[in-house]
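Troubleshooting log. The previous structure file for this entry was overwritten by mistake, so regenerating from the original sequence record. Sequence copied from the archived sheet and checked twice against the printout by T.R.
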Amino acid sequence: METRSLLPEAGPIALIDANTEERLQSIRVVATRDHALIRQWAARRHAEPATGEATESGPSTMTVNDDGTGIRFNFPGVGRFRPIDWDEWFRNFDEYSLVFVYERDEARHALSSRYRMLPMADLQRKADIR
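Regenerated output below.
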């Protein structure tokens, strides 16, 4: 089974926040550092903040290959990572200057749960950011 990358090989990624979310609607993959947008994305998918690494709230639960970002989401029926609260999740997100990259929702399609967490510097090297 071939896995396709979330980051487009060609084409831009829009860097959005709550004030600019509606801009560049033709761009399917977007990135944000906006906490409210991330929480909204997670809420629509019933996703909960989680980690696989040792943090202030508990031990490591597994080895995770996630480019060192440490945080992720548990989805209903697939919650294999250690749950953490939003405050801890966002402390990690901010401390490591991460950016949340995801596919926008499309009308008449199932919600996409594809996302990726990257350091902002990595995203700037890998993508055409608008």
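The chain has one domain: 12-129. Archived copy saved in two places this time.
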